[in-house]
Each structure stands twice: as C-alpha cells, then as structure tokens.
Design brief:
Blueprint (H helix, E strand, L loop, with lengths): L6 H8 L5 H10 L3 H17 L7 H12 L13 H26 L1 H4 L1 E5 L6 E4 L5 E4 L4 E5 L10 E6 L1 E5 L9 E4 L5 E4 L3 E5 L5 E7 L2 E7 L2 E7 L3 E5 L5 E5 L14 E8 H12 L2 E4 L1 H4 L2 E7 L3 H12 L2 E5 L2 E5 L8
Parallel strand pairs: 5-7, 16-19
Antiparallel strand pairs: 1-4, 2-3, 3-6, 4-5, 6-9, 7-8, 8-11, 9-10, 10-13, 11-12, 13-14, 15-17, 18-19
Helix pairs in contact: 1-3, 2-4
Length: about 325
C-alpha cells in the first residue's frame, strides 16, 4: 500500500528523514501542478517553525530533485552567521570597487598620463613646454606629451604631433634629445633647433630653419635615417618615399600662417581646397576648369570666409555654400580671365 503524501511526510523530508521509497513517491506526486503549490506552502510553514535554518524554496526544491536522482545531499544547509556573511560581502564589494577603479584607470590612461594641447579650426596657438621649448600649433592640430615626466623626472622629451606646428627647441646642458613623433611613424630627432612639421593627409613635411635634425622613417623592410641641414625640406609619403630639396630664400617662410597669412606660389587650386579642409573643416568642390588653375599671392585671412572671398575676387568665380560644403565654379557666362 502506498504511503499517503501529507504534511507530516513533507516535514520529515525537509528534515532529511525520508526513505528512498518515500522520495520516489514524492517525485511522482510533484508531477502535478497543484501538488507543487501545496509543496511550497508546507515548505514555507516548515521554515517559519524552524527559524534556525534559512532556506530558499527554489534551492530546497532543487535539492529535492537531486535526492530523487540518487544524490545524498541534505535538503537544507544552515547558513553561516550574518556577521560572517557581511564580512565576505564587504570583501567582495571592496574587491569589485578596486577592480573597477583599476579598469577605468587603464582605459583612461591616455588622458591622465598624457597632456593634450589642441587647436580648433581657424585657431593658431603658441605654448611653452616644461623644458622651455616653444611650439606654435596651426589650426586643427594636436600635440600630446607626458603629463608628469616630460623634461623633468627623466631626460625624455617626446611629443606626438597631429597636424602642423613650428618648434623652437631649447638645448639642455645634458644634451637631451627632443623627439617629435608623427601620425605616419616618422620621428624627428633634434638637440636644439627651429623647424616646422606638417603631418596632414598621411604625409610628413619637415622644413629646417636653424640647427640640425635627424629623420627616422619606415621604409620597406627597414628604418631609414636622413640628416637635414638648415634650409632643407623633406617630404615623406606613407610608402616610405622621401623627397628632399632646398627652401627658396625668395619665398615667404612656411609659417606665415602664424600671422594668419597664406602665401601661394603657383599653388594648384586642389591644394588650396585641401588647406581649407585641413585648417577650417570645409569640403570644397571644384569644377574641372578651376581644378587646373594655380594661385600666386599672399592672402591675409582669419577665417575661411575671408580666404574664400579673396579667391572669389581674384578669379571672379561663382560660390554656392551649403553648411560646411562649398562649390566653386567658373561663371557660365564665360571662361576665367
């Protein structure tokens, strides 16, 4: 005769005193949803009568299923004292906070470890570095250097340039090198000198005014070096190709932009369109006739509108502007004179 499933039997089961046959009967009895609700109700009543044991209904039911599968686990396990639980929870909370702080510090290391000096479109800015060197940034440029160790805690004087800048580097008593790293892995190594670096459009151009510098740049299967003399200019393409020449002393210096002047010597209009994009964030569209034109002259402009207006007056061209996009074209009435 089968044993009846009642409260007394379940209470005995909750205390771990049921036989394998009774456990099998309970397993069959719990197949019905109504019996499961009754099971949880009696479990809650039993827990209220036995406060020294704190159980979770889901955990208790899981353990019951484990018992029916032939396991020998107890139906309920006393928990550790509350004060021990609090200490463990506090430990894991502190560990979690520490891990979070370390993770955030690692992810933001470029911010707190490096100082960034940047200019907006149309802005020119001069700064003096901790070692006394002076840097003048052209518009839409960025210079990064160590926030803590540049020229103070160590002889390292390294900066990372994106855009264009003029450098006037001071010579230190210990002959420490000053290194400029560009976006296409070109490195300019100097002791004390004046030079200009332009890293726009995945190319690097260096013009040396005074002193001596050494360029290190990636070439196929090797790192090449090149030493510059005052008056030299070097163009380095992304493929490691280097072009070298001498600055024409009759021309204006490369840093007329410091005074918001733009000097063009037979400069193709596409290059001027690139300048408007790099320095002022404009997208310039040229028709085929304008794209073949070259410009000679010096223009004074504090913003893009002044420079575009100067070109319009020079060539008598049509302008259509839509936000940051400018279309320049030859008037339909006739060719450019």
């Amino acid at each position: 005769m089968k044993t009846a499933i009642n409260k007394a039997l379940l209470f005995a089961h909750f205390e771990g005193r049921t036989t394998p046959l009774q456990i099998e009967l309970l397993r069959e009895w719990l197949q019905e949803a109504d019996n499961q609700q009754l099971y949880y109700g009696w479990l809650q009543e039993w827990e209220q009568q036995n406060p020294q044991i704190i159980s979770d209904p889901d955990v208790a039911y899981l353990k019951f299923q484990q018992q029916t599968a032939g396991t020998s686990q107890a139906a309920a396990t006393p928990r550790m004292p509350v004060w021990k639980q609090w200490r463990i929870q506090s430990f894991f909370m502190a560990a979690s906070v520490t891990a979070l702080v370390l993770t955030v510090a690692y992810m933001t290391r470029n911010y707190w470890a490096m100082r960034t000096i940047a200019t907006d479109y149309g802005e020119v800015r001069s700064v003096v570095l901790p070692d006394g060197s002076c840097v003048t940034l052209n518009a839409n440029s960025e210079l990064r250097l160590s926030r803590f160790s540049f020229g103070t805690l160590s002889p390292s004087r390294e900066v990372f340039l994106k855009g264009e800048a003029e450098f006037a580097v001071v010579h230190t008593p210990t002959h420490d090198h000053f290194r400029v790293h560009t976006t296409n892995d070109v490195e300019v190594v100097v002791l004390g000198t004046e030079f200009v670096v332009n890293t726009r459009r995945n190319n690097t151009r260096v013009e040396l005014n005074r002193g001596k510098v050494q360029l290190r740049y990636p070439a196929p299967d090797q790192i090449s070096t090149l030493t510059m003399r005052p008056g030299d200019w070097v163009n380095l393409s992304a493929g490691g190709q280097a072009k070298r020449g001498r600055v024409d002393t009759r021309q204006q210096p490369a840093t007329t932009w410091k005074n918001y002047e733009y000097n063009f010597q037979r400069t193709p209009m596409p290059e001027i369109a690139n300048l408007l994009a790099d320095n002022f964030g404009l997208t310039v569209q040229l028709d085929s006739a304008l794209a073949r034109r070259k410009v000679t002259g010096t223009f004074h402009a504090h913003n893009a509108d002044e420079l575009v207006q100067a070109l319009v007056e020079l060539f008598d061209i049509d302008v259509i502007r839509d936000g940051k996009t400018i279309q320049l074209s030859v008037p339909k009435s006739g060719p450019i004179q």
